[in-house]
Design goal:
Number of strands: 4
Mean pLDDT: 81
Order of helices and strands: HHHHEEHEE
Shape: elongated
Low-confidence stretches: none
Largest sheet: 4 strands, mixed
Length: about 120
């Protein structure tokens, strides 16, 4: 059964608090913003129980950073491409950056999307 994606606003409402502390806790700024350990633990436990994952699209819009790289290759038969692609994949996974591989075959563009969670 598909579950409707919840927003940070939905979670804050369910917890009976404002969006601000939930946002700070999600972004690892609870201590810096002087949010109590008890509140942090309560929010983290609730988000874990609800299996909440922040929207990468929303984060990208807010931060102005997409965390996506798109290497484009004209000729996939070039022997330089596969090792370079593997190096990029490994590096992007370490940094939780999404990678979209794109290569051109005649007039067809082919892409494969590798989410950061791979």
């Amino acid at each position: 059964m598909d579950q409707e994606k919840t927003s940070i606003k939905d979670n804050a409402k369910a917890l009976g608090i404002s969006i601000t502390p939930v946002s700070f806790i999600l972004n690892g700024k609870a201590t810096e913003k002087r949010i109590s350990v008890a509140m942090t633990e309560r929010v983290e436990a609730y988000l874990k129980e609800e299996n909440y994952k922040p929207s990468h699209v929303a984060q990208s819009l807010r931060s102005g950073k997409s965390k996506v790289i798109v290497p484009m290759v004209e000729d996939i038969s070039n022997r330089f491409f596969p090792p370079s692609s593997e190096t990029l994949k490994k590096g992007s996974l370490k940094k939780a950056i999404e990678m979209i591989e794109t290569f051109k075959t005649e007039m067809l563009m082919v892409s494969s999307i590798l989410p950061p969670s791979c």
